[in-house]
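Problem: given the chain below (73 residues), write out its structure.
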Amino acid sequence: MEQLGQLGAVAAGAYAMHEKHQAKKDTQHAHSHKIKEGVAAAVAVGSAGFAFHEHHKKKDAKKQHRHGHHHHH
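Solution.
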C-alpha cells in the first residue's frame, strides 16, 4: 500500500505540473487548468500522506512483532 501511495503522489504531481504548463500555454482556458492543477496538487499531498502513514504503520507492526517475540523467551 505504501508504494501505491507513492505512485499516486508522483502521478498526481506530474499531472499538476502538466496542468500548470497548460495554463500558461492555453490562456483562454487558464482558469480551468489552474483548478485542475490545484486538485491534482491536493491529491498528490493526500497520496504522500497516505504513503507516510502506511510506512509508519508497517514500521510499528515490525516493532510490535519484535517485542512480542522477546516476551516469549
